[in-house]
């Protein structure tokens, strides 16, 4: 399912604003690589000085080690939620045949990245993970699968780097495909979305939920002509960013809807609240009476609400008749999660799409799922870490081995280090043959390493090592043969998780 | 560092062989999505029937859940080795500005995938992880970093899917950049490569090692003209796939080398063996005497061998004067790992490259590293799993919740499941409102789930649940409030690792 990140679409790239770190530089002449490198080569290099811009492409970025530490924690968190629900995982190529993507995204198709025709097949970078999933299910003849897929997707959209809106970004998708009983997998998807957002400390959230068929029924009840359903649906979809007045204007002036019909729509799309309360109101006020599809869909939603109640997550849901979701392929429930204290838009969204797999073959495989907009969660977590001034460890080094005397042969450290590595202990040392004691101690404490192993001449003579617990500052000299056991004992006593306070 | 997978280069794509699973199909008309969908839309869909090929692009493939289970285990294994050495990780975009890649790969540049010019920057898919790493180091002004990067790279090469040679494939790179003492980071790279290959059950391996400057010195000693060093080096690089006779022919007939010079080269490139033995032989036979650079490089290699010996991995190394490595940018030691029982070519390779970062700025940052050719390791592991008939679990579900009476309301299962999920237990159930007991038990045992939780009418009346250990077949009825504790107790007693026997 695709989380829409296309609030303000534009594919113009002519101004070429350079986001992020940008350095203009000249290609420097490479240092002589080898003494024996022929003179002629050197000359060529000197001549080829050429100005170029040192940057990543527009809308993309590098992730630095501290950012990666947070991201890895976040991904592991989401992955373990997916696994808790028994999901398997798949991987698909980063590009698909262009034909595979054609006709799936409506107007958004203009945002698809194409590969150059270099002789061969015509390919495009994937735009989301849902269409490749549907292609996968059809191609492998699968009748049922519950899978997650964490991968990057590509959109030639107008990037807003500070808001977590990129041209290259991760999605974390979970989908259940297969013929199952009414609302059973749908309820699990909503439940799982709640569990994921609860597991990440991003603040309070609400899951807005609606049903495509109910929306269509409401349009019919209000008197929208059948051929205007999808375009009016698109207009309703803008209600989270635009006032009703502007949406009404679009409906009437741009889309030629009768003003009275629009006013009848207003009455419906302003309705939202606790699922049980709003359901009672719709029934009490007989808002949908007389429309068979509407009544049937409301009954189906009642089943969903009962399941969500049994699982304890119904109170997270707001039944919201204004929720429309942009994509054409939804056929059942639609839902999206909003962080109530943040202006980042939806952080997760999805719905039921029963027709997509059938577009690739002769077999329909009804599906429901959602996508976590993990870049937005990441930018919230990153802000949080900055606010709390959390110093994020970039690596997971447990031990730093120092020699306290510059005369000691480096091989003495190498023997110790190899032994610790063999025991599976994350160990570093200084890449110097004769390092200063002070420099090594500085490096160890800069890296927030919990244990230091020290050798001096005395230790070498007595076949022993000093082991220091950096938290308690206690240092102990043990026999050389007890090194690994001692280090493991200290490591066991230490809680090394330093990023995990970002998560509940 | 790039593991060369380009044994037989070809960018012709005209024959369009369709590797792997290929299905020709027609776009089926989507089922009516909603009863209220306008008639006109349906008609349009029916008209747009168009033949298309249901496949992934040439040289790419989908990974299925059992493949992903092996891959995930393999990646976690490699990642923990990288972390054991204190490496941080970074991420770079999948495409770079075309200029960033220009002039880095020599002849192989023709294999680079370009993105279509859609107005904006001209970009190309990354060809390896080394060049983006050098760009990253230069752009962020980094003076020292030890990082790993696990990601896919792209080459418009002639794919051989059965041999693990693809157009889209993973590399696992480890590099140490920074000014350090002679051979210290180099030794760590060789050591780490050994540790990774030992940690994965892929059979015996040998690490061939040579030095670019020694090779250049040998060429000089043999009388190769300085401007022919690189092209003769390329010819030597083919010795692992071609006989000396053919390589000699290429040198003399294609590259215009004097026959006597070629014969002198033969004497050198046939030399290989244990580092200490070959070093002694070179010195005893005075093979490099009189050439200053050769003598200096041999002394440096002695330092490396001493470090490797101290760490206990020197016996894995074969000092091999025929090893040349294709890429131009190496400036120091070069090495590659070969699985001795397999014909898959090198499974890991790397070397020192002191000039690459300097090509992006004014600062040289000397670097050494390697790349694990993980697709080849994966294909060995996959064969192994097939040979041993290991049934690979696709997910990590721990508990399956069944209702033994079709009349019980599904919400009873939902309450149990939500409780288990809340306790962090991986739980599944059947997506049916009134499932048959037999079908549920079949599903649970198909999925190799270690614990089953069962409820019947008796259990509901007595506020209890039955918990079954699927390994021992023991079933116990416990109070409803004891459910989570009982399940956790059984899970603790079970070794759930089922793929880990592929690894040591």
From TrEMBL, chains A, B:
<dbReference type="InterPro" id="IPR033656">
    <property type="entry name" value="HisRS_anticodon"/>
</dbReference>
<dbReference type="InterPro" id="IPR004154">
    <property type="entry name" value="Anticodon-bd"/>
</dbReference>
<keyword id="KW-0436">Ligase</keyword>
<keyword id="KW-0547">Nucleotide-binding</keyword>
<feature type="compositionally biased region" description="Low complexity">
    <location>
        <begin position="14"/>
        <end position="37"/>
    </location>
</feature>
<dbReference type="InterPro" id="IPR015807">
    <property type="entry name" value="His-tRNA-ligase"/>
</dbReference>
<dbReference type="GO" id="GO:0003723">
    <property type="term" value="F:RNA binding"/>
</dbReference>
<protein>
    <recommendedName>
        <fullName>histidine--tRNA ligase</fullName>
        <ecNumber>6.1.1.21</ecNumber>
    </recommendedName>
</protein>
<dbReference type="InterPro" id="IPR045864">
    <property type="entry name" value="aa-tRNA-synth_II/BPL/LPL"/>
</dbReference>
<dbReference type="InterPro" id="IPR036621">
    <property type="entry name" value="Anticodon-bd_dom_sf"/>
</dbReference>
<feature type="binding site">
    <location>
        <position position="171"/>
    </location>
    <ligand>
        <name>L-histidine</name>
    </ligand>
</feature>
<feature type="domain" description="Aminoacyl-transfer RNA synthetases class-II family profile">
    <location>
        <begin position="59"/>
        <end position="384"/>
    </location>
</feature>
<dbReference type="GO" id="GO:0005524">
    <property type="term" value="F:ATP binding"/>
</dbReference>
<keyword id="KW-0030">Aminoacyl-tRNA synthetase</keyword>
<dbReference type="InterPro" id="IPR006195">
    <property type="entry name" value="aa-tRNA-synth_II"/>
</dbReference>
<comment type="similarity">
    <text>Belongs to the class-II aminoacyl-tRNA synthetase family.</text>
</comment>
<dbReference type="GO" id="GO:0005739">
    <property type="term" value="C:mitochondrion"/>
</dbReference>
<feature type="region of interest" description="Disordered">
    <location>
        <begin position="1"/>
        <end position="51"/>
    </location>
</feature>
<dbReference type="GO" id="GO:0006427">
    <property type="term" value="P:histidyl-tRNA aminoacylation"/>
</dbReference>
<feature type="compositionally biased region" description="Basic and acidic residues">
    <location>
        <begin position="38"/>
        <end position="47"/>
    </location>
</feature>
<feature type="binding site">
    <location>
        <position position="325"/>
    </location>
    <ligand>
        <name>L-histidine</name>
    </ligand>
</feature>
<dbReference type="InterPro" id="IPR041715">
    <property type="entry name" value="HisRS-like_core"/>
</dbReference>
<dbReference type="GO" id="GO:0032543">
    <property type="term" value="P:mitochondrial translation"/>
</dbReference>
<feature type="binding site">
    <location>
        <position position="175"/>
    </location>
    <ligand>
        <name>L-histidine</name>
    </ligand>
</feature>
<dbReference type="GO" id="GO:0004821">
    <property type="term" value="F:histidine-tRNA ligase activity"/>
</dbReference>
<keyword id="KW-0648">Protein biosynthesis</keyword>
<feature type="binding site">
    <location>
        <position position="155"/>
    </location>
    <ligand>
        <name>L-histidine</name>
    </ligand>
</feature>
<dbReference type="Pfam" id="PF13393">
    <property type="entry name" value="tRNA-synt_His"/>
</dbReference>
<keyword id="KW-0067">ATP-binding</keyword>
<dbReference type="Pfam" id="PF03129">
    <property type="entry name" value="HGTP_anticodon"/>
</dbReference>
<feature type="binding site">
    <location>
        <begin position="329"/>
        <end position="330"/>
    </location>
    <ligand>
        <name>L-histidine</name>
    </ligand>
</feature>
<feature type="binding site">
    <location>
        <begin position="128"/>
        <end position="130"/>
    </location>
    <ligand>
        <name>L-histidine</name>
    </ligand>
</feature>
<dbReference type="InterPro" id="IPR004516">
    <property type="entry name" value="HisRS/HisZ"/>
</dbReference>
<dbReference type="GO" id="GO:0005829">
    <property type="term" value="C:cytosol"/>
</dbReference>
């Amino acid at each position: 399912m695709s989380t829409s990140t296309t609030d303000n679409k534009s594919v113009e790239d002519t101004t070429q604003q350079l986001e992020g770190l940008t350095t203009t530089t000249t290609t420097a002449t490479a240092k002589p690589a080898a003494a024996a490198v022929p003179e002629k080569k050197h000359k060529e290099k000197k001549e080829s000085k050429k100005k170029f811009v040192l940057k990543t492409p527009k809308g993309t970025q590098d992730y630095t080690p501290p950012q990666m530490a947070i991201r890895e924690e976040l991904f592991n968190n989401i992955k373990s939620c997916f696994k808790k629900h028994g999901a398997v995982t798949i991987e698909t190529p980063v590009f698909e045949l262009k034909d595979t993507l054609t006709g799936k995204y409506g107007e958004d198709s203009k945002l698809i990245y194409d590969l150059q025709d270099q002789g061969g097949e015509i390919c495009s970078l994937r735009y989301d993970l849902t269409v490749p999933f549907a292609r996968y299910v059809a191609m492998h003849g699968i009748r049922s699968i519950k899978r997650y897929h964490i991968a990057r997707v590509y959109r030639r959209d107008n990037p807003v780097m500070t808001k977590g809106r990129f041209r290259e970004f991760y999605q974390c998708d979970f989908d259940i495909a297969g013929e199952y009983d009414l609302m059973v997998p749908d309820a699990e998807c909503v439940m799982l979305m709640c569990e994921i957002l609860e597991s990440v400390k991003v603040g309070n959230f609400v899951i807005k939920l609606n049903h495509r068929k109910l929306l269509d029924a409401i349009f019919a009840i209000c008197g929208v002509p059948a051929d205007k359903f999808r375009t009016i649906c698109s207009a309703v979809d803008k209600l989270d960013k635009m006032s009703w007045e502007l949406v009404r204007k679009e409906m009437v002036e741009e889309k030629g809807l009768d003003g009275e019909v629009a006013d009848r729509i207003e009455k419906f799309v302003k309705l939202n609240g606790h699922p049980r309360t709003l359901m009672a109101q719709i029934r009490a006020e007989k808002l949908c009476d007389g429309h068979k599809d509407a009544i049937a869909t409301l009954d189906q939603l009642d089943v969903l609400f009962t399941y969500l109640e049994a699982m304890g997550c119904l109170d997270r849901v707001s039944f919201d008749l204004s929720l429309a979701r942009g994509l054409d392929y939804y056929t059942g429930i639609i839902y999206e999660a909003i962080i109530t204290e943040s202006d980042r838009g939806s952080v997760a969204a999805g719905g039921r799409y029963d027709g997509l797999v059938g577009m690739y073959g002769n077999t329909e495989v009804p599906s429901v799922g959602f996508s976590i907009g993990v870049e937005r969660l990441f930018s919230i977590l990153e802000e949080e870490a900055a606010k709390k001034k959390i110093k994020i460890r970039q690596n997971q080094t447990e031990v730093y081995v120092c020699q306290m005397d510059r005369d000691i042969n480096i091989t003495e450290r190498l023997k110790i280090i190899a032994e610790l590595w063999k025991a599976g202990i994350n160990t570093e040392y200084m890449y110097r043959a004769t390092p200063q004691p002070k420099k090594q101690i500085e490096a160890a404490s800069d890296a927030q390493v919990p244990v230091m192993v020290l050798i001096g001449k005395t230790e070498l003579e007595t076949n022993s090592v000093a082991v220091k617990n950096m938290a308690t500052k206690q240092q102990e000299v043990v026999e050389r043969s007890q090194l690994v056991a001692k280090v493991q004992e200290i490591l066991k006593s230490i809680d090394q998780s330093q990023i995990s306070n970002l998560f509940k």
